[in-house]
Amino acid sequence: MSTVTAQPTPDSGGLAPDTAVTPTRGAGARKLPIALGVLTALLAGILLRSSHAGDTTFQLAAESDFVTLPDIVVPSGPTAWVMVVICLALTAEAVRRMLAHLRQPGWIPIAFAIAWMTGFLSWAAADGRIRLVSLLGGAVALAIPLVFGALGGVLGERAGVVNIAIEGQLLLGAFAAAITASSTGSPWAGLVAAAVAGALVALILGLFAITYFVDQVIVGVVLNVLVVGLTNFMFRQVLTPNAETLNSPERLRAFPIPILGDIPLIGPILFRQTPLVYVLYAVVALVAYALYRTRWGLRVRAVGEHPKAADTVGIKVNRTRYRTILLAGAIAGLGGAYFSLVSVAGFNREMTGGAGYIALAAVIFGKWDPIRATLAALLFGFATNLQGVLSAIGSPVPSQFMLMLPYLVTIFAVAGLVGRSRPPAADGVPYRQQ
Amino acid sequence: MSDKDQPTPESEKNPDSPVVTDEPATDAPEVDPHDARGERSRSLLREITSGDALAGVLAVFLAIFVGSVMIAAIDEGVHETAGYLTARPSDFFAAVWEAISGAYSAMFRGAVFNYNLTEPAQQWRPLTETLKFAGPLILGGLGVGLAFRASLFNIGGRGQMLVAGGAAGWVGFQLDLPLVVHLPLAVLVGMAAGALWGGLAGLLKARTGAHEVIVTIMLNYVGYYLLFWALTKEWLLKTPGSVNPKSPPMKDSAVLPDVLGEQFNLHFGFVLALIAVGVAWWLLNRSTLGYRIRAVGQNPHAARASGINVGRTYTVVMMIAGSLLGLAGVNQVLGTVPSGVSLDLDAGIGFDAITVALLGRSRPLGILAAGLLFGAFKAGGFTMQASENISVDLVLVVQSLIVLFLAAPPLVRAIFRLPAQEAK
Amino acid sequence: MRLVLRGITKRFGSVVANDSISLTVEPGEIHCLLGENGAGKSTLMNVLYGLYKADEGEIELDGQVQHFTGPGDAMAAGIGMVHQHFMLIPVFTVAENVMLGNESTGFAGALDVDAARERVTEISDRFGFHVNPDALVEDLPVGVQQRVEIIKVLSRDAELLVFDEPTAVLTPQETDELMEIMRQLKEAGKAIVFITHKLREVRAVADRITVIRLGKVVGEAEPTASNAELASMMVGRPVELVVHKGEPKLGADALVVKDLRVTDLAGHAQVDGLTFTIRAGEVLCVAGVQGNGQTELTEALLGLQDDVSGSIKLDGLELVGRSTREILDAGVGFIPEDRQVDGLVPGFTIAENLMLNRSFKSPFVKNGSLRLGALREFAQKKLKEYDVRARDIDSLAANLSGGNQQKVVVARELSRDLRLLVAAQPTRGVDVGSIEFIHKQIVATRDSGIPVLVVSTELDEVVALADRIMVLYRGRVVGIVPADTPRETLGLMMTGERPKDLKDVVA
């Protein structure tokens, strides 16, 4: 069972790019201009092939803002073309910087993304109405489990434990949340149960991956299968016959925060969400702070980069890893509560539908950094929500392709086309003491 | 599992199994203490009493035990008798026994031999069901196992099956050809599609270093949505006039023929699986390509320094793996469920294949055995669900537990309080 | 602090790495532990440092018996270790590395980076280290990284410092600086254990010498002992420090390298315009401190580097731009510097390893399938011929000792029709018996009229094998000199300095 028990060497373990195959080099500087150029051409191509007449309405307001922002009505075609021109200008700037061997600043892709999206939306929603608040607010809501999952993934991998089992943690979290919230009548108890469930999966992961040196990717995959089997089994045998008592939790309702929630645009997007979202904000901030600014974080990162070095300065490597993945599991588990307490009330078979794998994608796309991973998860949430919005207004883009986007972006990311990501050096490598 | 048929001795080793060290070299302690776990003689007796073989058997036993606990835990009779456990414990244990034995005898009836029937053909029918389920599991297991031998983790079985199933299905109902052309063509197109989907991950790894675990996971979903999209286009897979994402049924000329006549569901896919086992065995143990695959899998650096093109090997092995999983997808679309391509055509086999490959230790004959075992679990599981009202998902739990326990022999030994293999 | 080790025994399986070792180290002295690779020196120190648990024996510090459960305990007791492979985290800054495990924190567990920075600066100034606390460790040169290791140890107020083979990666000049630092520390009253197998260094700084062989203490020696005395204690028998070889019978120019450049992924030239020639029947040794382009040079010869320019002609055939397979087929034999990484497949049998670079054509391949019979026959023969000590040809390479592993590699490479042999660090981590055997094989290869390129960072080996010596520094040739060039001159050249009166020799 080579892969189960093979002892990975530091350069072949985990998810690091293989050093035995040398990656094509020197492509770094050219990537951004090429990517921007292709995207601009794509947008122009779409516009040329089918130009829509009419106006597009961008609605910025939601009810009960301090001030009601007016709708923005723009002519579809011309607006889209203006955006193409802006995209073109940004591409030209990127090309200029490439030729001058200058660093590509972060604002170029961001500005490009906004312009491109605006152009695309005004074309796609010709004669229609884009409700920005629901587009972005929905994206935040859909991203909840992804962000929780991604944070769990980032923490674990920063400590050197690859966590493919995010999916399982979300699913068991959803299951535990539903059953606990139903039987206690408190969705809050459900949240706690979700965290415990996630930590439980992490504990098993740790038992096999840390204590018994089983390949972490394999344990993760098998754990996912185990959790699917377990929850399906329990769902059919226990939850379905006792749906009244065990699978009808009270749903977590949106809870607008006074004042903050009344800020135009931002308020309804960020601060009229369910309490789980506010927990999320706190967790993101805490994880980002703790990982980079505290003793705990320094040690976690040390253990993930060079466990032996950490050991020689007296840090208990495996104990640190256990603690970290338990915490990570609890965070991922919380995300599971989204499915059975927020999205719908109640558990259903395999209801996470691969969100754990998107979260994993966000970890990688976010380069193992909590803030970037959060942003990546939000981006993926946005893509999913955009797909919903577009199919609702009858957009010509097949929804399947929109849904494919997070996965494609991740493939591009790991292939180094969207910036090379470097995982923690000892990611996935078990630590053995003599 | 005997390794007698292998030309190479156990070439992948469990780090916790005794390391066979050679005769104490005269330059003795010139051994890196990190690698050296000392030399031990490995006698057959010791192998059985304290070795991996016993741990393997116990792993299966342990997993089935957990499954039994789950069966008992949800059983009505057990619940009732548990209410007066202290008063009449015998009732409780009788109920437990009844629940568990009922479940497992139902599994046996569903997987091997149904003693409740009288006609011999019908009695043995479950065995053919087992073989039917085993076919794609073996094919998928080979696809995953072969990649394992090159140290690649192919989690993309689902995507490879979906894409292959879609492609084979398209040939299967869109074209009108005589059977001798149609069926092979559909099979080959399916395998080619699987090879493409798998090879893509290999190629990306070879060219950019992108980790195949991530790429294959992502390609699962890309493949899923691609098939989804194809099922909305009439020129691809959509059934005209239907809103369901399901294609029309396969033409008769493209359906895998039954092997044992119409009264059994066993079709030619199982024969293909057996052929694939033979080919894979030859490939790994007797061919130079297999030699290179194993060399790359164990030490890509040394392979590269010895003139082996590591990247090309990755690509080729992933193409072969993809085509095998593709064949598993073809087996579903043209054999088991010829009523049309749908999004769940993979039936979880893409992930089951991982457990099959792990249980089979990535060796073709091991995979054959593991595939048969899990095929029996599946066939029996459905009977158990129908007759005892115990969810077939129990099988998934037992299956994954077997693999987990198997991967950590020291854990199993600890549970059973067997002597540790190594005096630390 | 006074350290006493009493009867330390450590076993790995049935291999006894340390056999009842006793040792005393006084404060203010530099105590050398001298021994061959694998004699058990590092194991002993890892026991002392709490990384391994001793099976028997006890550790006593200032009269107190210690029970270490991990490095943390050892450190708390005042033991500091400068590891052979630096225990630094490359992506952390110097300050972060120094504070790790010993962090001072402020409110809510927040790191006090300023305190760590000050501590680094203070120690750095005290010993004249010139280390910037905010530099990332991965950006620092090796010598500076080692100072960071020392700062790390000193910042924990260690009283007993262990240096484990500290000079392996240093230039002679950096080595001298390190010796100076060790003397300084000794003056400051620290007890120092210096582990090495290099006799010259021992005699330069040691106050006392303990020699270890096969896991046992074989005796003490005075720093005034001669090299030959120390060496024979180390090895257990009189050692010939020279390789017997006759005058070379030189043939025509065989390997002609012109203006060779190798650029790494980051765009730095690792080999920068090398030009040299090796004649048939000649050994050219490449000397230099590790990391001065030797690895890239050998890899370029084998087609293992991507960005190579210039020309490598072997008997007139251009090798640049060819694949590794083509180069091997052209008759280049390659003993890589790290057999574990590039030389062997550990999970393969000896037989399988012997066909590693012949997996495409005869004699072991026919129509895409393996000829196992022919392979077995071949392997049986080579096992005997090369004196590989293994049970049989089906033994896994992973289970062989370093010397026997290396013999398998040598057997594989020398049993093809060679036109060039490239041997990188051919005897690294190999016992003395195997060293002599491998050296003989290399000389025999040369005497059969094959050009040989040997890369070695061990000056002894270079001098013993070479017909000519090429010294590399930062990817450039400092000079190509005769084999009898004085060591002092070679040492100077390894720092990049070229003596004024030096003349390159053309064979």
Automatic annotation (TrEMBL), chain C:
Q: How does it sit in the membrane?
A: Peripheral membrane protein
- Domain named ABC transporter: residues: 3-239, 255-499
Keywords attached to this entry: ATP-binding, Cell membrane, Membrane, Nucleotide-binding, Repeat, Translocase, Transport
> Subcellular location, in the record's words?
Cell membrane
Return the InterPro entries for the record. Answer: AAA+_ATPase, ABC_carbohydrate_import_ATPase, ABC_transporter-like_ATP-bd, ABC_transporter-like_CS, P-loop_NTPase
Signal peptide as annotated in the record: none
Q: Name one GO molecular function term.
A: ATP binding
Query: Which terms in the GO cellular component ontology are assigned?
Result: plasma membrane
- Protein name per the record: ABC transporter ATP-binding protein
Q: Which organism is this protein's natural source?
A: Nocardioides ganghwensis
